[in-house]
Every structure is written in C-alpha cells, then in structure tokens.
Fold each of these.
Amino acid sequence: MPTGRAAVLEDYGEDLKLWEVQVDDPGPGEVLVRMAYSGVCHTDEHVVTGDLPLPVPMVLGHEGAGVVEAIGPGVTRLRPGDRVVLSWLPACGRCQACRSGWTGMCRTTSRAAEKGTLWDGAVRVHAHGRPLSVMSLTGTLATYAVVPEQGAVAVDADVPLAQAALLGCSATTGYGAVAHAARLRPGASVTVIGVGGVGLHVVQASRLMGAERIFAVDRFPARLEAARRLGATDLVRVGEGEGDALVRILDATGGMGTDYAFEVVGTPATIAQAFNAVRPGGTAVVVGVAPPHEEVSLNAFAFPSQGKTLTGTWYGGGDLAEDVAALLGAQRAGRIHLEAFLGEPFPLERVNDAFAALRAGSATRPMVALGGEP
Ligand SMILES: [Zn+2]
Ligand SMILES: [Zn+2]
C-alpha cells in the first residue's frame, strides 16, 4: 500500500491543501498509476466554487497521465511500466447506456462520479484513517491514482507525459467537439467562443479538419494570440470598449454567420451567442460546462425557419483510445502542436498557483508535475 500526496479540496471556496494519503493496492480490474502530470481544468474550478457540488473532502484533478505501477486481478490490457492517459469517463460496458452504444453516457461512471468513488462504490484513497473521495474516478492531482482498467489508455514510450496529460480532457474534448459532434467539413467557417484550455484545442482541431476561416472570440489578448498561432484567421476581442462580437462576426460573413460555432465558456449568454452566430442550416456545439441549474433562452422561430442545429458534447463523444491515437498521429506529423499548450509546470506544492493561472486566463494549460515521469 503506497503512501502518497494529494491536492485535496476540504470545503468549497477554499484553497486546496496537500494531504498525505494512503493508497490501496488496485482491486479487480483496476490499475495503480504513478502520476506524472495533471492539468488544471475549469471543471476542477467549478468544484472549488461549489457550482459543481461534489462530495468534499475530495482529491481534485481529472486530466492526467502517468505510468502503471501495479495491476489488479483480471487486468489484461495493461502492464506495469505502461505509460497511460487517464479517462474521466470510462465505459463499464454493462449498464444500459453502454449496452445501447452510448458509452460516453455510462451510468455506472456517472453514479460513481457523483459519489467520488470508483465503480461499485470502491474507494482506494484514504487519509486520517477515513476513505477520501476522488474527482471523476481519477483524482489526478496526486502522486498516485487507482482507476478502472478501462479508464487508462496506453501510449507509446516516446510520448511526453505532459502532452499525454492534455489528452485526458482538454485536447480530446476539443477534438471530439469538432470531429464527432460537428463532423466539420473541409472548407468550413467556424466561430469559437472562448479560447482557453479547451477552446484552443477546438481551434486547432478545426484547422486539422480543414476549416478555412476560424473566428476566435475571447476577452484575453494572450489567448487570442495563441489562437492565431494555432490557426484562427479572425480575432474578436470582447469586453469593455469592444464592439458586439456577434455583430462583428455577422458583418464579416455578409450577414450570414459561420457554418459552425463552438461555445467553450459555459454560460447561457454565450450559448445563445453561438446559436446566433451560425448561418441558416449551420450547427452550434455547446462544449462549455455551465452550472447544472442554468437555462438558455433562444428564439423559437429560428429553429424551423433557419434549420439550425444546436447540440453538445461531453468529453468529445468519441472513443478515447481512437481519439488519442488520432491526436498523437497528428502530433507526430506536425499537424497539431500539443507542445504549444504547455508552459513551465507547477510543482504540487504550488497547486493553488496553477488554479490562479487558470483563473487569470493563462494561454497555456496550467500543468502540475507530480514526479512520475520516468
Ligand atoms: Zn476537464
Ligand atoms: Zn456503462
């Protein structure tokens, strides 16, 4: 039973605290992962604020990569020493959603995630003699994580684990929004509202899939500049003294709007803005995670008269192993630039500085180094 350290949210609105934790050996079908890197995501921040109320105290973090240290009974796909990306949405394969092919809506996983446990209520992390909940079956802001075998995807030995960590949430979500939810066609025009940690991946994936014109909308100049480097053709700054973003996009497209719009903020206003930014017959995709009680107001007449589609995506809606392979193939071919998302990593002791960087609109993904890169 290894002893490790974990970044724990003791109560909503507080800074994270570093706790010494005891981690059980992996149970049947589980693997113990020595964590190398964990990103800090807006969904973590939603837990900190209480907008996404999960049971505390909880080990936060759900975007991570590391090295398998031990495997539980019955594990067949992974071996100690494998470098893995962790999934916060593993498919049990047995629930009604999984059996209907909706593995991204796995009920076993969503029930466990609400309780902060693994499948079937198992808890593998303890502190002060008590079980400790972990975020989204992962809890990556820790030196160790125990996850279901289905929640770890092996990558080649030469893949840098900080890049691999991005594939655990932001890169895959952004890519899947474009490739699966929108099924973006080459030559398309695109609006991306919010070019932070996920939105920049939407920009990059849109370019990868052949979009010709990409409007990036954000209030932070550094993020807009990053969007430009990753393929955005039109930068639309919002905020005080700036014009209305929607008006500017409509003006620039002959009053039509773009073929696709991606909302990557998670507010009712920006969701409506994305819907209004697409041309008749176009598709708007909600990627941003709004607090669960929020509602959106849209013009009802626009649905029949303009034939627009409004849809959403949760973790990209694809098969994680396939999407990881596609993204790493594109990275190898120089067609995407995961390295552009990475700044200097924060040591675990400075995890709260990583959250501060997220809140300040960092143009790179705040990444916490956990020591497990061999
Ligand atoms: Zn995330
Ligand atoms: Zn399932």
Amino acid sequence: MNCINKIKNNKVLDLVIKANEITKKNHSNIITLERALLISWWCEKGDCSFCYMAAEKKRINNPEKARRNVNGILAEVELCTRLGWNIEFLSAGYSSFSTEEIKNISKKIYEITKKGTWLNVGISKDLKEYGKEIIGITGSVEVVNPELHKRICPSKPLEDISNMLTDAKDLGFKKAITIILGLGETLEDINYLTKYIKKYDIDRIIFYSLNPHKETEFGESSPPSSIYYSWVVSTIRINFPKIEIICGTWIDNLANIGILILSGANGITKFPLFKIFGTKYGKRTEEEIKWTGRELKGTFTDKNRLGSLKSQYNPNYDKHIEKYIKESLKNKY
Ligand code: SF4
C-alpha cells in the first residue's frame, strides 16, 4: 500500500499520535531552535517564482553590496551559541560568495560552535573542497512535484540537485533537502517525496510553509493549513523514524509549533528569532514547546544568557565583531 492510501485510511490525529510515539522512541526529548544564517541577499538565478530574492534582484545594482559583512555573520553565530540556538545552515543565493569564501566563513563558524555547519548555497560541483567545517549539504528541492518544480524553479533543475546529493553522500557529508508546502503540490506528491528521501538517503528534511511575498506570483496565496502541514510531517516521521525533521513557521503562525512537534519535528525554524527574543512571541514559542512535553534547547526569554557586549570567542576578531554584537543587543537587556 503506498503512503497516500495509508494517509487516506487514517485520520490525521491518529497519524499524529503514531508519529509522536515514533519520535519519542527514536529521538531525544530536546527541541532545537534552528537559525538560518543568510549571508547575502543576492541570487544570480533570481527566478524562482515564490522567492523574495527574485524581487530583490531587480533592486540590487551592485551584488557586492548585498553581501553581509563577515564579522556581522560571526557576531550572529556567537549570539546564537550563547542563547543555545543551532545554526540551521549557511545560506546564500547563487554566485554571491565563492567556494573559497564560503569555506573560510565556515571555518570561522566552526571555531565558535565547535561543530560542522550545514550548507545551503545552491547546486555546487565543488563539494570536495570542503572539510570538517562542513557537516552536510542541503539541496533546495522546494517543490515536491517534479513538473511543478520545472515551472517554479526553472534555473535549478531537480536532476542537478539530486546529483549534488549523490556527490555529497560519496564524499561522506550528510544530506538534507528543503521543501516548501503550499506551492500547488497535492497529497499524492507525498509519495514522490518518500521515494526521493529513500533514493537519496536523506538525513534531514526541512519543511517550510509558504510565506507569500507580495511581489511574487504567490502574493495573494494562503499558507497551507496547520492540519495539512501536520499530516505531511507525521507521514514522513512514520515512514522515516530516524530522519531529522525541522519545521518552519512564520510569526503569524506560532500556534503551528505544538502540533508540528507532536507530528515529528525535532527542531523549529524560520520565524525571526532575534526580533521575538524577550517578547510575548518568544514566550508563546516556549509555551508551545512546553505543552508538547518536550524540552527546549536554548531560550527565547532568559536575558542572562545574552552575555556581555564583548566577543568571547577570538581576540583577533573581537574588536570587529563587537560592533555587531552591540547593534544586535541594543534594547535587549
Ligand atoms: S535559487 Fe534560491 S535564492 Fe535564488 S531565486 Fe531560487 S529560491 Fe531564491
């Protein structure tokens, strides 16, 4: 029986209950906060029809200026580490940083976190250049229907993403994919997704629900329902007990968090972590996690963990990073 028939034969709450049992048996009780580290607002492709970077591309005259300062990136990593937040991945649009630059930034991140970083920097044939500073490679599959993928992401063919994931496996990296729900896929497409996860031996899947950007063709679309989202996540958890699942939800959908954790999420992402730290939204996020019976790694409310305005990581970078730490912590104490 394929998974879509299994879904139809089960009510969603039954799936969630089963998924929750499987998660508790195969994973720790900890829920992580995952921070995507965006290092540039420029993407040379700029034609995925849901992506705000496509709209940004028309406004950016000089791609160099869309690159973040490396010390600002490192300050963000240091603050995430203080607060117990994981780095979800290093993320950049196409042709914004060279492989060598990405490697150097990742090495500096490794010095702070003492862990390899995931990459989500597009299709690359240079994976062999990376070492222990990188733990895994993310393929931005985005759309779970291959035909829709061709139309929605015309410049990043699924075949090239898949080949990169095969290379990643051969080189000993972990493999992740990103999926956005709400781009026109149907429940039947979940069968395709389960086959893809099996075929490419995916270790981690990151789900997002569509965040409609007004300058894109999805500007007036509605994000998918929480029940549909939990249906998909619990189905993946039931089919793949060991896979790591990260779920993204936007600040106006924080109520999704609890049900997504019960459906199998190990971590949550996407909402603006720094902006909501210490606010009612931060408290709400912690409440959502608390009521699932899980334990949050890190904090949204404990101001003691913000630490000092000085960088504690490397005296050589300290002075340069400090300016960015001060900016981020402004009004937070
Ligand atoms: S390749 Fe990535 S960053 Fe570039 S337009 Fe597509 S989704 Fe956006």
Amino acid sequence: MADFYTRIADYDVEIDYPKYWRARRYEHLSEALALGHLLDSHLADWTVDLGGGFGRWYPLLRERSDRVMLVDYSLSLLQEARRQWGDDLPLVRANLYWLPFARQSFRSALVSRVLHHLAAYDRAFAEMSRVVAASLVVDVPNKRHALARWRARLSSAGPDIQSHAPINRSVTGDTHLNFHPAAVMASFSRQGWRVSGARSACSFRALGRVPLLPSGWLAGLEGPLQRWGAGAMLGPSILTAFQRPLEPTACATSEPEELLRCPACRGRFFSEPSRLVCRRCGAHFPILADRFWDLRWPRP
Ligand SMILES: C[S@@+](CC[C@H](N)C(=O)[O-])C[C@H]1O[C@@H](n2cnc3c(N)ncnc32)[C@H](O)[C@@H]1O
Ligand SMILES: [Zn+2]
C-alpha cells in the first residue's frame, strides 16, 4: 500500500489546535463570512464535517441542518469536541481515504482546512463523493494567491504557480499542499459535481496575525473582496461550493449507527457491548463512548 495512503497528519501530538485558533480570530471571522454565503441556508437532515477537528464549525452547521456528524482522525480533537459540544454530536474517528459510511449517507458536507494534508487527494475526493449526496463546501488552499503571484514574478526560480500540480509547502518533509483551485474544481467535476459558488477568504492573513489589530475591522474590510477575489483566485483560501442532483434514495436514515459501514470492505456491522464487528469480513472496531466510534482503517 503506497505510503501516502497511510501517512496521516498527527494532531494528537503536534499541535494545540484550539489554542491555534484563539490566536487567529480574523481568519476565523473571514472564513465564517464566506461560509455564511456558501452553505445552503437549510442543509436539511445530515451534514458531515470531514476532518472537522474539534468542531470549530459545529454551531454554524447545526443552525442549518437537523443533524451533524463530526469525522476526524485525531482522538484528542474529537474528545475536545465532545467536551465543547456535548453528547448530541456523533463522533467518528476515521481516515478520509477509507470513509466508514454507506454511499450517499449525508446530504451535505464541509471540508475546511483539510486539503493541505491530503497527499492522496484524488482518493480522498472520490471517498467524499461516494458518501456525500448533494452539497459540498471545500476550502481549497490556493497556490496562486496574490502574494505568490508577486513572488513568482520577482523570481524566475520561484515555484510553478500556473501548472495544475499542487505544491508542497512543507519544510519538514510532511505534506502541506497548496493547490491550483481550477485543478480541484476539475477533479470534483470528474466525480459529477458542478461549482455553484466560491469565496476568497483570509486575504489579510499576515496582517491578521499582528497582535492588537482589530480582527473584526479587518474582516469587515475584506467582505466586499470575497466574491471578486474568488473569481480572480486571489486569496490564500478559495472556499468552493459544489452541488449535484440529489437521488431520491439518498440520506434515507436518521440514526447515525445506520450510516456506518466497515471501512475495509463496506460491509454492515453488528454491535457488541464495546465494539462493532463487520458481518462480511469480521474486522472489528472499538466503540469509544456513546455515539463515538473508532473506525480508522488501516488499523494502526
Ligand atoms: C487544520 S485542521 C482543520 C480542522 C477543522 N476542519 C477546522 O477547520 O477547524 C486539519 C484536520 O484534518 C484532520 N485530518 C488530516 N488528515 C486526515 C485524514 N487522512 N483522515 C481524517 N482526518 C484527517 C486532522 O486530524 C485535523 O483535525
Ligand atoms: Zn468488513
């Protein structure tokens, strides 16, 4: 199995992620503004936050849909989500390359600040497209943002920002990819999605990290830029909304357990007191707490 399918960014040891966001108020406000425009006003039954961390966007998604599920690889972030948001939010510890859900389980999904970790992004896009039925909002880390274009002009040895291939910005040898937004759009359109809207976010990222600069003021200034900047692909994050027609059989169930499938073979589970067991291949997975399943695959 290729290494990039199994190497996953480790948010359990590498970073205090809630603290990271406390220092980035402007970026959070900027993304919230963009998501407010892009997310359907009523997403209806199931919405899944894929790579959702500690549920930074849970309040926003909960306002718009009857049920939200949070999926992430990191145990500590999911535990933080349980502490912050309580027992109503079902939690699934899983790998985005092997999503443990039935086809078209969710009507809608959000993928925020995750793409830069996905070395095998085509595989992850295919998995997202399998489990999400009709509406998808994806935050695309943009390799062609305004500053990168200036840098590329000034230095002929700079990275190639025209090609559709992503650039790895990591200096430590991990994966930190920036994409050509058109390449991500093309990739999703091969999975049957069409772009229904886009917003450019975090244009003043560097300024926003200066202490004492009022973050609300910066975000207000950026508002008018978001739509125009998306067309020109100027900001460091291009939040892109995709849609496709909803099949009548999609998202039929309301119980989270019924959406779960074995990530190894997609078989159905039967439940034992502390684990789920696959009826087809016999693989078993821990139940970590009420509505909290560990369905990572391959098993570490
Ligand atoms: C930068 S954080 C973004 C969290 C959240 N979406 C937000 O916007 O606050 C990236 C998240 O992606 C998760 N992640 C990265 N690779 C993953 C994978 N292959 N499967 C599942 N989660 C993954 C990490 O655990 C982390 O929580
Ligand atoms: Zn199985």
